[in-house]
Structure formats: C-alpha cells, structure tokens
Amino acid sequence: MGVNLTRSNKETVRHSDxxxxxxxxxxxxxxxxxxGADVQARHIVVSCAAGVTISSxxxxxxxxxxxxxxxxxxxxxxxVVREGATVYATGTHALVEDGxxxxxxxxxxxxxxxxxxxxxxxxxxxxxxxxxxxxxxMLLDSEQHPGQLKDNVCSPGGAxxxxxxxxxxxGFRSLLINAVEASCVRTRELQSMADQEKISPAAxxxxxxxxxxxxxxxxxxxTPSGSGTLLTRNPAPGxxxx
Length: 242
Prior knowledge:
Blueprint: H1 9-14, E1 18-21, H2 28-35, E2 44-47, H3 54-61, E3 69-74, E4 84-90, H4 96-107, E5 110-114, H5 120-128, H6 135-141, H7 146-152, H8 159-169, H9 172-196
Parallel strand pairs: 1-2, 2-3, 4-5
Antiparallel strand pairs: 3-4
Helix pairs in contact: 5-9, 8-9
GO molecular function: pyrroline-5-carboxylate reductase activity
Family: Belongs to the pyrroline-5-carboxylate reductase family.
Domain Pyrroline-5-carboxylate reductase dimerisation: 134-190
C-alpha cells in the first residue's frame, strides 16, 4: 500500500508535504514545539484537534518561519467506510490551492466542504461528536458491536463523552439538543485549555465512560500525503490515539 511507519515525528515532517495533527488539544503545543524547526514553506499543517484555533497554531509556528500554511479541519469516524463528513477552514497564509488539496484528499473518504472557522465548533458538536452520516453503513460493514462503535469516538475528557453523559442520563429525544450544545461548550473549553497550554494529568490517562465526572450537566498523528506515513504520537507509553 506504500505505507511507511516511523516513531519519529521529525522524520515524518522531513519526508512529507501535508501534516495532519491528530492528537488531543493539550498535546498540540508540544507537537508544534517538536516539529516547528522542520516545518518549511512547502508544508501544509492540518490541525484536527477539537477547539484548537488556526491563530494559535500559526502563532506557535511563526517562531520558526514567517508564513506557516495552516488549515483547521474536523472530520468523523465514518471516514473508515468512505462516508465521512469533513469541514475545514484555511489560515492566514494558506493558499486557495492548499484548501483544494485538502478537500480532494478528504473527499476520497466522504463529504468535504469549506466553512468559516467560527462554525467548526458547532460542527464538532453535531458531526464530529455524533457522526450521523455513515453511521448506518458502519453498523452494516463493521463486525463491532454498536456500543463499541460509539465508544470509538469517545476520547477521555473530550467533547463526545460529555454529550453522551446527557444521552445516557435521561431520555434521548428530550436531551438531543442539550447534548449537541454540551459538546460545543466542551469544544470551547478545550480551545481555552489549548490556548493556555494547560495539561490535566487525568486527561493523559484512560478514562472509563462510567467514571467521567462533569463540573456541570450542561455540557502527531502526522499523516503525510506523499508517502502515506502514519505516526501516532501518544503522551505516555501504552496510550491510545484519539
């Protein structure tokens, strides 16, 4: 398949043109510190982290080069059956053709369109945290139990698990709107954490769904385009990807 694996983020950057940052939001600053010196003008840096703004990524990378090309995107798990829903917004220095390249890549695994960045939080709550598009096909094509498919999109302390708290604590229909809103709120909280570069030790550990504690009931993986390399950056040995 032409897939090359490596444990080095810096090596991945050196041999790639499009970099997908698919780690937890509070890990993004550390990934950028690690790879920043190797990011060049040819690179397109695509952040898939919930709540991490384009400006925060650009600010980090501008310590290494004056005009980093940054794109923010949000997708969902039905991409595994080519029924995903992806939206993206381009940064200050990203070119029109950079956005078109990302759209071409993501359209191969589902629907992809450009939106204003301030709409991505809402998409995170509605689509990224609740993949309606493609869910039925995933059930038909996958050998996994529906409950396992649900858990696959629940990263510890993330937006989805906060939304599921609503769904599992009461009636589904009456709580659906609150669940979407709760996920949007959590996405903005994650953005705030990322902007302040805060790390919660608990967020680095595996959290069981039934042990999640909410404050209120209102709630790099680097994937280059050229080589097809997939690298998972975990915060600690034995960690799991988002």
